[in-house]
Specification:
By secondary structure, this protein is α/β, with parallel strands linked by helices. The protein contains eight helices and 14 strands. The radius of gyration is 21 Å and the shape is globular. The protein binds adenosine-5'-triphosphate (ATP).
């Protein structure tokens, strides 16, 4: 198995006659076997990045290497579930899984595909067009996992699932990925559902990387601090700060010990992400290479 699942070097994608920039100068490395969350505001470039990784789009700048090769050459070894979950509406659930097996004769894992469908109480002879959005998601995930991919790319996979189905499918996905060492890259707006599931983070904003690296390292590089509004936070990097009366609360990247006047706690994933979303101008931080590198 390849050590690096995705390597992007100065990756960029522009669209249309006006060369609208969707992704710009993105460099990061995702080691194999990780579960990576891709987060960022609407239009940040998350779907564009996943489509480039899946080989459905070509870069207009830079390169993206998947499982040590090009996305096209890695196609058999990856599975991609797009935001709109395209499936054949006229096929039944059973036909859809049969097609999955025929298209992936060497790798198809019928057991996992059938289990995911069965857990959703879906009848095998139901036509795809009669299924709800959430039921279709389940079939799309069954198809993707049945392919037994080394890299699973999921674009907002849980968006139309009810909370119970979301919880159950997420657990099934994580258990399967852990059992097989699958690399999972999953975009989502629901940061709470990523907590505990992901061990790597990619935060995009306006087409650029804002945070990239192992989640524990990114969390450890930040502190939530509270103190007096007139105390200085120099020389630390302040990602975001808010003042209520005389009290200041801030997310900082400490540069050495914080002074005695500051109460500090470790941020949660949600606090880390929200602070960066509220402060789009905060400097980026990449901790995904051997050496720490600011981007
Ligand atoms: N086919 C396209 N043609 C033109 N512009 C596009 C195309 N696809 C994406 N874009 C633009 O690229 C930018 C990034 O879009 P993308 O869909 O990757 O964002 P996203 O982070 O997935 O957003 P969301 O959270 O809303 O799904 C947006 O400004 C979008 O308008």
């Amino acid at each position: 198995m390849t050590e690096t699942a995705i390597e992007a070097a100065a990756l960029g994608r522009k669209f249309g006659r006006h060369r609208k920039v969707a992704l710009d100068d993105c460099s990061f490395r995702l080691p194999a076997g990780r579960v990576c969350a891709v987060v960022g505001p609407n239009g940040a470039g998350k779907s564009t990045l996943l489509s480039l990784a899946a080989g459905l789009l070509r870069p207009t700048d830079g390169t993206i290497t998947i499982l040590g090769t090009t996305p096209a050459a890695a196609r058999e070894r990856l599975a991609y579930v797009a935001q709109d979950k395209p499936l054949h509406p006229q096929l039944t659930v059973a036909d859809t899984l049969r097609l999955g097996r025929e298209l992936n004769p060497r790798r198809w894992d019928a057991r996992v595909a059938e289990r995911i469908v069965a857990e959703g109480d879906l009848t095998a002879d139901a036509k795809i067009r009669t299924l709800s959005g959430g039921q279709r998601t389940r079939v799309a995930l069954a198809l993707a996992l049945g392919k037994r991919p080394e890299l699973l790319l999921l674009d907002e996979p849980m968006a139309d699932l009810d909370p119970l189905a979301r919880h159950q499918l997420m657990a099934a996905l994580m258990a399967d990925a852990a059992e097989h060492g699958t690399t999972v890259v999953m975009s989502s707006h629901v940061v709470a559902e990523l907590d505990g599931a992901c061990d790597h983070l990619l935060l995009l904003g306006a087409g650029r990387i804002r945070l990239a690296g192992p989640l524990d390292d990114l969390l450890a590089a930040h502190r939530l601090v509270t103190g007096r509004a007139d105390d200085s936070l120099d020389p630390h990097t302040v990602v975001e700060s808010r003042t209520t009366g005389r009290q200041l609360t801030a997310l900082v990247r400490p540069d050495g010990p914080l002074g005695d006047g500051w109460q500090t706690t470790a941020p949660t994933l949600e606090e880390l992400v929200l602070a960066h979303l509220r402060a789009p101008e905060a400097p980026a931080l990449r901790l995904d290479s051997a050496r720490e590198a600011a981007v």
